[in-house]
Write a structure and sequence with these properties.
Layout: E1 10-11, E2 14-23, E3 26-33, E4 38-44, H1 53-67, E5 77-80, E6 84-88, E7 93-94, H2 95-100, H3 106-125, E8 138-140, E9 146-148, H4 153-156, H5 175-179, H6 192-195, H7 202-218, H8 228-237, H9 251-260, H10 272-283, E10 300-301, E11 306-307, H11 312-324, E12 337-341, E13 349-354, E14 360-365, E15 368-373, E16 380-381, E17 389-393, E18 399-404, E19 407-412, E20 419-423, E21 433-436, E22 441-445, E23 451-455, E24 462-465, E25 472-480, E26 487-493, E27 496-497, E28 500-504, E29 509-514, E30 520-525, E31 529-533, E32 538-544, E33 549-558, E34 562-566, E35 572-577, E36 583-590, E37 595-598, E38 607-611, E39 617-623, E40 630-636, E41 641-644, E42 653-657, E43 663-668, E44 671-676, E45 684-687, E46 692-696, E47 702-709, E48 713-721, E49 730-738, E50 744-749, E51 755-760, E52 767-772, E53 780-784, E54 786-790, E55 796-801, E56 804-811, E57 817-818, E58 822-826, H12 827-830, E59 838-840, E60 846-853, E61 859-865, H13 872-875
Antiparallel strand pairs: 1-2, 2-3, 3-4, 4-6, 5-6, 7-8, 8-9, 10-11, 12-61, 13-14, 14-15, 15-16, 17-18, 18-19, 19-20, 21-22, 22-23, 23-24, 25-26, 26-27, 26-28, 28-29, 30-31, 31-32, 32-33, 34-35, 35-61, 36-37, 36-60, 38-39, 39-40, 40-41, 42-43, 43-44, 44-45, 46-47, 47-48, 48-49, 50-51, 51-52, ...
Helix pairs in contact: 3-7, 3-10, 7-9
Length: 877
């Protein structure tokens, strides 16, 4: 078929009406669908495409996947006709033409950006990456609706010959050329990793989204140059000129742009849904974060009847509270947000402190001291501030204090010459610490002394609290509580360093909290918690400022990290170590084992994954600090938020959902327990004897579990449940469902309730069998392996065989039929830990697994706003 068509030419039921011009991947025409009486767009593919039947077949398969996208902000693909794509005809103007007229007002830019992010989120959720997002591929209709064009076609066309202006159109090469570094994508909108010819994932789309947003706000090109080489060099090496952004750009939007345009994909915002939510916060009037440097009113969105509310009133309230001494709680409810800052050269961060106003962080890296405002993309080095220990801020956030060379010092946060406060008798160690009080006193410890105090204006320091030399050698890491409620510190017990946190109220000292594991760096958060470091992780425990008492059970805030500090609005900064050799993350993978999307926190290994009946949540158990402890965690798959579900002592493992999704049963210290899935209420003991891997039948009538036996080692038992299922105790006596020699385990009932699949090693190796349910009659071998899982229809059973995931077709009508197992993917080569647990989606197209991610060999400072929102349900108990 020729690549140019005249009006009147017919392609099947489509009649060409007019030429719409060249597209990035071929000529585009307006055509009439004579069957459905609608106008469509026809994109004719380059002629070279037709020379290879393999290419045509692969293109057809990929186009079928793209056609599955059905979203109001994505231009639909209707079909393929004679090597041409039939697509939705989108009226409106290219975003590139709108940008060419100059900066787009914020009131118009934010709704456009939100719709683009929404489209990216929808596509990414189905494993489709755009790869060529740019203003020319975005249409804005007269009613303000945005349509993103050409989703995923850069991948579909990856073996095409480049044609046209490579500055504004994708270039396509053979796989061989790609391995030589030939670039895929559009130069001006490529992510740095894409510009280097490396493999890309959804984060490349996040980068392009950031570039498009920047250009909408500035009216100019983010990365320019006279040649493609110049542009690519700018993408890889240069930062955007942030001064081009309008002065009224909200700080939260600035931070969003910075996170999208991180050159290192490991530090870049990972999810388009997070970007969409931040933009929606701005559109719905959520105030900008207190980390803004110069809060400015945002323009009104009169056309949409809502306002972008400014932070002026809130900042005034915060200032008044600070003038009174201390803020007792955040001035407003910030959204839960996490992002990282740090040195761009990958240097290791060894200490950090967030300013009381929450607008800046000072940190130590590469033997230098840096200050980074949170509305800035790069840190500023503090000249002359070297050999530093124990960074801390003045209450008004204008000065930074530090320990160095036997003296306390202070230096303006904006830069300047350090000035000494006082000398001390002993050199400072890494266990030293200091805090600056509102009355201009500084309380400190050298790491080899008791608690000391001195005026911030200078003078001779005096002893505030001496160590008890009979039991402790010195005191560490002091923190001043608000309202003059005393000082937190860590006593260095003789031969037992850092096992407790103490409080000194000016006249007496008490022990607040102790542990058989090391404790350090205690601080108070306005949410009413003490944060502290324990074994390279950050934990929190409830604390009453009025009563000076700890209550409740400590809970994990960050699985990696140390030295937490807290701003007056509750924002926390943590030095997070990302240097672990292997870090796991719960993720969706497709049937080939390829990553679809991460859903859990990096560093969180969840064993025994179980998907809720509605597919919106997953629960698993995470190993505790010792082999005798584990707790259940629930991940909201839509919001990508985790919360801890159990707080009982011992191991809580093997969770399973009730059919209505309201309860979770699990193996607990007492036997088999259940508790509401929303985290409320107390656990209910269903089986008061040691048991493992409990499950509930699909109709809710029976509880099944594995229990050790004296003769047969491990058998599967069933007990009837009352009419309220797990809300009531079991009815009657448990009965053996499957009993045989050695170990029977991992029972799971088919969705229709007719068969139970389980694993047994009675033959010496683990084999998966089916048995009739609820009778337990019959025994049919499915395949070698363990941990069987059904899909939603019950016509597929999945089995893990070592490092491979197998699929078996099951037919139950008119008679039971079991196919030969076939391998889907090898988990080991993909970094997937199948034995830790997996869970298929209802249609079997995706699998939740624990997947290894490569962490950066450096540390960063993680900033978390409204950190307690992630844990509020669990920590209230």
């Amino acid at each position: 078929m020729p690549s140019t068509l005249s009006p009147g030419t017919r392609l099947g039921p489509y009649e060409i009406l007019s030429d719409l011009g060249a597209g990035g991947m071929g000529e585009v025409y307006r055509a009439r669908d004579t069957k459905l009486n609608r106008d469509v767009a026809i994109k004719v593919l380059p002629e070279v495409f037709t020379h290879s039947p393999d290419r045509v077949a692969r293109f057809t398969r990929e186009a079928q996947t793209l056609a599955s996208l059905n979203h109001p902000n994505i231009a639909q693909i209707y079909g393929i006709e004679n090597n041409a794509l039939v697509m939705e005809l989108v009226a409106g103007e290219d975003l590139s033409a709108i940008i060419a007229r100059g900066p787009i007002p914020l009131t118009e830019a934010l709704p456009i950006a939100r719709q683009i992010a929404d489209a990216l989120e929808a596509a990414h959720d189905q494993g489709i990456i755009h790869r060529d997002l740019k203003p020319a591929n975005i249409k804005v209709r007269a009613d303000g609706t945005v349509k993103v064009l050409d989703f995923g076609l850069a991948k579909v066309m990856d073996q095409m010959t480049p044609d046209g202006d490579a500055m504004q159109s994708p270039t396509f090469t053979s796989p061989a050329l790609s391995r030589m570094g030939v670039i895929l994508g559009t130069a001006a909108y490529m992510a740095p990793e894409q510009a280097r010819g490396k493999a890309v994932d959804r984060r490349a789309d996040i980068w392009a989204f950031g570039v498009v947003m920047f250009e909408m706000l500035t009216g100019g090109q983010t990365f320019g140059g006279e040649t493609i080489t110049d542009v690519l060099a700018a993408v890889v090496k240069e930062s955007p000129d942030w001064t081009l952004l309008p002065a009224a750009t909200p700080p939260a939007l600035r931070r969003l742009l910075v996170r999208c345009l991180e050159k290192d994909p490991k530090r870049r915002m990972r999810d388009a849904g997070d970007a969409r939510m931040e933009i929606e916060d701005l559109l719905s009037g959520v105030p900008a974060a207190a980390t803004s440097a110069t809060p400015a009113p945002a323009p009104a969105r009169a056309s949409h009847g809502r306002l972008l509310i400014t932070a002026v009133v809130i900042i005034a309230v915060a200032a008044a509270a600070a003038a009174a001494g201390w803020m007792l709680k955040p001035a407003r409810e910030l959204p839960l947000r996490k992002f990282a800052i740090g040195p761009k050269d990958g240097a290791r961060v060894v200490d950090a402190a967030i300013s009381p106003d929450g607008r800046a962080v000072v940190f130590l890296a590469n033997e230098k001291t840096w200050v980074q405002r949170l509305d800035s993309v790069t840190p500023t080095e503090m000249i002359g501030v070297t050999d530093v220990h124990a960074l801390f801020w003045s209450p008004d956030s204008t000065l930074i204090g530090f320990q160095s060379k036997g003296q306390l010092w202070k230096v303006p946060a904006a830069g300047g010459t350090p000035s000494p406060i006082c000398r001390v008798e002993r050199e400072f160690s890494g266990s030293g610490g200091a805090d600056w009080l509102p009355d201009d006193r500084i309380v400190f410890t050298t790491g080899g002394s008791g608690l000391m105090e001195v005026s911030a204006r200078g003078g001779q320091p005096r002893v505030l609290l001496a160590p008890d030399l009979k039991a402790e050698s010195d005191l560490h890491q002091v923190f001043a509580l608000p309202q003059g409620k005393g000082f937190l510190f860590v006593p260095h017990l003789i031969n037992k360093p850092g096992l407790r946190i103490d409080l000194f109220n000016g006249s007496a000292r008490t022990t607040l909290f102790s542990s058989d594991r090391g404790l350090s760096y205690p601080v108070y958060a306005p949410s009413g918690h003490l944060l502290f470091t324990q074994e390279s992780a950050v934990w929190a425990v409830k604390y009453s400022l009025a009563e000076g008492k700890v209550s409740g059970t400590p809970f994990l805030v960050s699985p990696t990290g140390t030295r937490p500090t807290v701003a007056d609005d509750g924002t926390i900064a943590i030095v997070t170590d990302e240097a672990s050799a292997e870090t796991m993350q719960v993720s969706w993978v497709d049937r080939s084992g390829a990553l679809v999307s991460p859903v859990g926190r990096v560093g969180r290994l969840l064993n025994g994954l179980a998907l809720s009946p509605d597919g919106s949540r997953v629960v698993g158990h995470s190993p505790g600090s010792t082999s005798a402890s584990a707790d259940l965690w629930v991940i909201d798959l839509d919001r990508h938020r985790e919360r801890r579900l159990t707080y009982e002592d011992g191991r809580n493992t093997g969770p399973h959902w009730s059919p209505d999704g309201k309860y979770i049963v699990y193996a607990c210290q007492a036997g088999v327990c259940s508790r509401p899935a929303d985290g409320t209420g107390q656990p209910l003991v269903l089986v008061p004897a040691p048991a493992h891997s409990p499950v509930i039948s699909p109709d809710g009538s029976a509880l099944l579990y594995t229990q050790e036996q004296a003769v047969t080692a491990m058998d599967i038992f069933a007990v009837a449940l009352g009419p309220k299922a797990v809300a009531a105790l079991p009815v009657g006596q448990p009965r053996p469902l499957v009993a045989a020699e050695r170990t029977q385990r991992a029972i799971e009932v088919s969705p229709d309730g007719k068969y139970g699949a389980y694993s047994s090693n009675e033959t010496g190796v683990y084999v998966v069998y089916l048995t009739e349910f609820p009778s337990g009659r019959g025994k049919w071998q499915v395949g070698t392996g363990g941990l069987p899982r059904w899909n939603g229809k019950g016509d597929r059973l999945y089995i893990d065989v070592g490092d491979r995931l197998m699929e078996v077709e099951i037919t139950t009508s008119p008679a039971l039929s079991i196919s030969e197992p076939r391998a889907l993917f090898s988990a080991q080569t993909l970094g997937i830990r199948i034995p830790a647990g997996y869970q298929p989606s209802a249609d079997g197209s995706r699998f939740l697994v624990n997947r290894s991610v490569t962490a950066a060999s450096s540390t960063a400072v993680t900033i978390v706003q409204n950190w307690f929102a992630e844990f509020a349900v669990g920590a209230k108990r």
